[in-house]
């Protein structure tokens, strides 16, 4: 799970604060932009104090890559075909090899090479794959296999097609993403569709949900995608009904309160919030904690068994308490193992 800072990398305190917030939300790695020498020089301090591995995002200037490598960066995002002479490419690869640092080739439909746009007339999946293979061959020619690749477009279909085509031709790790997906709601939907299609096919090793929003939201949405596909579990998975005239308590409001109240939990606790008895008991028996609406006396379940009742006023707190207890049990079990 990956995200990217949107702070000025030269502002080390602000960048570290955002890296820490992303790590606390569940980011396994964080990318930082290095558009100038000062940003690349800041890498050394950022790496030393970051709680997670960092990736330096670099375009065109091989000197920035060398500075980031000297600073201890854990990965480079740079396209070898875009940094000039063979000598420059060899110098970057040599420094990366010395430190065993992988290089991520990042192809973006919005910045394809001129000759590919002339050949294909417009951005398309085959053009993206051809661009990726060009950069891959450069690194393979230098006997450097520590490669991962991304093929990103704002068009969901184009992105999915590109990854499918490349996955048939190479066996390198693939970093997934729908780039420039938009704001929180539309970007989440586009990412869920595109990344979900690929992940269920077994394509993809790392991912970023690219949103025009707080980067922490990218991590939250990413984990929701992975939880929905049962690929990774983190935090409370709330199963809640969409509500109807049968609801016996304000389901929408209760779910909103519980999402906020339980945001600190990292253990994979399952919680069902169902407004009436039609589907409620069945769902509650399948989750660690469950609630079934009951006209002012809502039934609470724990591990499939009834565990008391709660009025509307105390419902949120009683459910939260049981979820926290379930999380504590999971945490204790993990520590023993």
Automatic annotation (TrEMBL):
EC number of the protein: 1.17.7.3
GO biological processes: isopentenyl diphosphate biosynthetic process, methylerythritol 4-phosphate pathway; terpenoid biosynthetic process
Keywords: 4Fe-4S, Iron, Iron-sulfur, Isoprene biosynthesis, Metal-binding, Oxidoreductase
InterPro entries for this protein: Dihydropteroate_synth-like_sf, IspG_bac, IspG_bac-typ, IspG_C, IspG_TIM, NO2/SO3_Rdtase_4Fe4S_sf
Cofactors (names): [4Fe-4S] cluster
Reaction(s) this enzyme catalyzes, per UniProt: (2E)-4-hydroxy-3-methylbut-2-enyl diphosphate + oxidized [flavodoxin] + H2O + 2 H(+) = 2-C-methyl-D-erythritol 2,4-cyclic diphosphate + reduced [flavodoxin]
Domain IspG TIM-barrel: 1-222
Cofactor-binding details, from the entry: Binds 1 [4Fe-4S] cluster.
Highest taxon listed in the record's lineage: Bacteria
UniProt GO molecular function: 4 iron, 4 sulfur cluster binding; 4-hydroxy-3-methylbut-2-en-1-yl diphosphate synthase activity (ferredoxin); 4-hydroxy-3-methylbut-2-enyl-diphosphate synthase activity (flavodoxin); iron ion binding
NCBIfam families referenced in this protein's UniProt entry, alphabetically: ispG_gcpE, PRK00366.1
Protein name: 4-hydroxy-3-methylbut-2-en-1-yl diphosphate synthase (flavodoxin)
Gene source species: Magnetofaba australis IT-1
């Amino acid at each position: 799970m990956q995200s990217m800072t949107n702070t000025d990398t030269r502002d080390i305190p602000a960048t570290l604060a955002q890296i820490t917030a992303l790590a606390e939300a569940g980011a396994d790695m964080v990318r930082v932009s290095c558009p100038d020498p000062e940003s690349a020089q800041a890498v050394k301090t950022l790496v030393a104090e970051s709680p997670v591995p960092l990736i330096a995002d670099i375009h065109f200037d091989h000197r920035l890559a060398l500075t980031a490598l000297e600073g201890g960066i854990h990965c480079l995002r740079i396209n070898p075909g875009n940094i000039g002479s063979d000598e420059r490419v060899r110098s970057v690869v040599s420094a990366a090899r010395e430190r065993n640092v992988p290089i991520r080739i990042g192809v973006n439909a919005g910045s394809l090479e001129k000759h590919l746009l002339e050949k294909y007339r417009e951005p398309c999946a085959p053009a993206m794959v051809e661009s990726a293979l060009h950069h891959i061959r450069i690194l393979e020619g230098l006997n450097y296999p520590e490669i991962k690749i991304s093929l990103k477009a704002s068009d969901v279909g184009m992105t999915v097609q590109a990854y499918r085509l490349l996955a048939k031709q190479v066996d390198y790790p693939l970093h997934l993403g729908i780039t420039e997906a938009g704001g929180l709601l539309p970007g989440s939907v586009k990412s869920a569709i595109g990344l979900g299609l690929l992940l269920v096919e077994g394509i993809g090793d790392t991912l970023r949900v690219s949103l025009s929003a707080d980067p922490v939201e990218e991590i939250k949405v990413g984990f929701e995608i992975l939880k929905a596909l049962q690929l990774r579990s983190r935090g409370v998975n709330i199963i809640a009904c969409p509500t109807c005239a049968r609801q016996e308590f304000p389901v929408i409001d209760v779910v909103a309160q519980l999402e906020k109240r339980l945001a600190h939990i990292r253990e994979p606790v399952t919680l069902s919030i169902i407004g009436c008895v039609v589907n409620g008991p069945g769902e509650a028996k399948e989750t660690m904690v469950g609630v079934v609406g009951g006209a002012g006396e809502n039934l609470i379940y724990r591990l499939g068994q009834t565990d008391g009742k709660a009025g509307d006023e105390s419902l949120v707190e009683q459910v939260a308490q049981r979820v926290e207890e379930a999380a504590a049990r999971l945490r204790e079990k993990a520590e023993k193992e």
